[in-house]
């Protein structure tokens, strides 16, 4: 069941059980092995730091993305990503041209609070997020 929360700077549509648990577990196993996960380094407060997670960027040709000074050129869609992309697009009646994967290897890996205000995303970006595995704050 979908829940919608509207705030002054956007809205969130939330499905607690978007994928059945078995499907979500199977997808997580596939994505952990199917995708090329990479470690990122970026400058923060004048020092080089390693991001506390692994990442990958996949999408349509030309769907480049830059954040924290790091340019991401999309790798091709994989079969698993294409499948979940179709499911999300069908549910949301929107199209998506790319996906940023974040792999949290343990309880210490994380993503800091951020706003997704990069110019490539447009003025009012529509972002779908699918979380698999352990529960995390979002």
Number of helices: 2
What is the C-alpha radius of gyration, as a whole number of Å? 15 Å
Helicity level: 10-25%
Ends distance: 18 Å
| Uncertain stretches | none
Let me know the average pLDDT: 87
Most strands sheet: 3 strands, antiparallel
Strand order of the largest sheet: 3-4-7
Structural class: alpha+beta
Give the helices and strands as they follow along the chain.
EEHEEEEHE
Shape: globular
- Record field, number of beta strands: 7
- How much of the sequence is in beta strands? 25-35%
SSE order and pairing:
Layout: E1 2-7, E2 10-15, H1 21-34, E3 38-44, E4 47-59, E5 65-67, E6 70-72, H2 79-92, E7 98-103
What does this structure look like?
The chain is built from 2 helices and 7 strands. The strands form 3 sheets. A 3-stranded antiparallel beta sheet has the order 3-4-7, with no helix packed on it. It has a two-stranded antiparallel sheet with strand order 1-2. A two-stranded antiparallel sheet has the order 5-6. Helix content is 20%, strand content 32%. The protein is of the alpha+beta class and 138 residues long. It is globular.
Briefly characterize the structure.
The protein has 138 residues and is α+β, with helices and mostly antiparallel strands. The chain contains two helices and seven strands; from the N terminus they run E-E-H-E-E-E-E-H-E.
List descriptors.
2 helices, three-stranded antiparallel β-sheet, alpha+beta, 138 residues, 7 strands
């Amino acid at each position: 069941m979908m829940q919608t929360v509207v705030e002054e700077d956007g809205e969130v549509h939330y499905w607690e059980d978007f994928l059945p648990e078995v499907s979500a577990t199977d997808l997580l196993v596939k994505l952990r092995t199917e995708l090329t996960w990479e470690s990122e380094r970026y400058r923060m407060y004048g020092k080089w730091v390693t991001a506390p997670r692994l990442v990958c960027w996949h999408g349509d040709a030309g769907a480049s993305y830059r954040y924290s000074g790091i340019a991401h050129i999309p790798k091709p869609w994989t079969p698993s990503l294409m499948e979940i992309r179709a499911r999300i697009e069908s549910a949301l009646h929107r199209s998506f041209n790319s996906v940023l994967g974040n792999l949290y290897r343990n309880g210490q890996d994380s993503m800091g609070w951020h706003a997704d205000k990069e110019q490539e995303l447009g003025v009012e970006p529509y972002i779908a997020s699918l979380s698999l595995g352990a529960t995390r704050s979002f």
